[in-house]
Amino acid sequence: MGAKHTLKIRPEDHVTGGMRIKLRWLIFFRLLFTLLLLGSTVILHIRDGLSFQDPSLIVLYGLICFLAVASLAYAALLKRLDQTTALAYLQIAVDTVAVTFVIFLTGGFSSLFFFLYLVVIMYASILLFRKGGLIMAVLCSIQYGLLVDLEFYGVLKPMGMLVSLTAANYAWSYVLYKVMIIMVACFAVAFLSGIIAEQERSSRRELAAMESYTKRVEKMAAVGEMAAGLAHEICNPLASLIGSVQLLKDEDQDGRGQRKLMLIVLREADRLSVLVNNFLMFAKPPEGQREVVDLGIVLGETAGMFGTSSAYAQRIRISTRIAAGIWIEMDPGQLRQVFWNLLLNAVESIDGEGTIEIEARQETRRAAVVKIRDSGCGIPEDKIESIFDPFMTTKPKGTGLGLSIVHRILETHDCRLDVESGTDQGTTFTLTFKTVDPPTRS
User: Given 12, 38, 276, 413, which is the most exposed site by the fewest CB atoms within 10 A?
Assistant: First the structure.
């Protein structure tokens, strides 16, 4: 669905702020490596009494200057560019080329510095996760293979090295064996580093989601206590009002104008009664009668009834993928109300024709997931953090209690609700239920 905003307050695959911090550290360590390389080159230069005209020294000093200038350029671009991911790919790709030059200058096939490829792949996985690590592994493998090939066939000769140490002086089987070992090492490091990076990202996302969920529950608990007292205070005079007006309506048979006004009062009083009942449901949902029910059956029946409604059937297409045999313990009526409210919210977000996708599956042995995805207008970024607040609505005729009630019902049953959305990109509600063993048949 493109760029998404989610109530999970996820760190996102590449949160701009986090990526920028990592890139700053990468630039810093690259400069540190450049200084170390410069120091070791100067020591080598003085110790061996090499001339400034030595080709290997010229290339080495040139590489040092390039790395220093490139790092400064990266730092300047980092302050101006929004596409930090593209800049990360550029930096690391250039780093692979720099490592190839270091290997070429230190012996080529016989160089001991091929491990620098593995270092580059590891921090590529940290910054760009598994995909970035594998891409850099491909680049490193291609460059090393090409370098050894050119050296083996005599096209290139490592600078400052004896002829006897070049790849051309080894058997081709040994050369191929070493190249394959290094390539396998590159991909193994990329794969393992990617797994670790993905797990770290997943942990951060879960931690942020739980933190957001905890804050939301605390906030709604305080509002719920206030709402319960307020709703009870409104209910009593409201009941008296409805009863009195009903008596007046029955007694007045001649005054048509007065009867019309009373009908309006009754209609608005009923509307207020529904609002108060919804508010009571949000403030303190009834515990209901918990039963072991088949989640798929309840969801399928609710979606079926909703799809046959004349108000939506002509313009909304509902598709379902519901796994069978998912058992949960919950009040069936409240479960239907949760699904109905979410489907109603999905329909109201769609202007004209659209689709609603419903999916239910067993996520783990003791957890099931239901996803309700719509093709509607989505939720604005500045609204997504408050969509579960009572009376918060983006719809002209909405009461702002539908999602609040859904959240409160799920909360009382120890279930979890998350949402991902983007403006004009639709919305996905994800419900996580605890599953139980199926009921025993007598």
Answer: 38
Tell me the per-residue pLDDT of 94-149, one tens digit each, with 9 for 90 and over: 999 989 988 888 788 888 888 889 999 998 988 888 899 999 999 999 999 999 88
User: Residue 361 corresponds to which tokens in the numbers above?
Assistant: 């599956």
The 10 Å Cβ neighbour count of residue 409 is 23
Q: What's the sign of the alpha-carbon dihedral 152, 153, 156, 159? A: positive
Question: What Å distances lie between residue 80 and 15, 56, 83, 87, CA to CA?
Answer: 16, 36, 9, 11
DSSP category for residue 169: G
Closest Cα to residue 325, out of 296, 303, 301? 296
Bridge partners of 293? 328
- Alpha-carbon separation of residue 253 from 247, 250, 256, 261, 267 (angstroms): 12, 7, 8, 13, 19
pTM exceeds 0.85: no
In this predicted structure, what is the pLDDT of residue 1?
A: 40
Question: 3-state DSSP call for residue 310?
Answer: coil
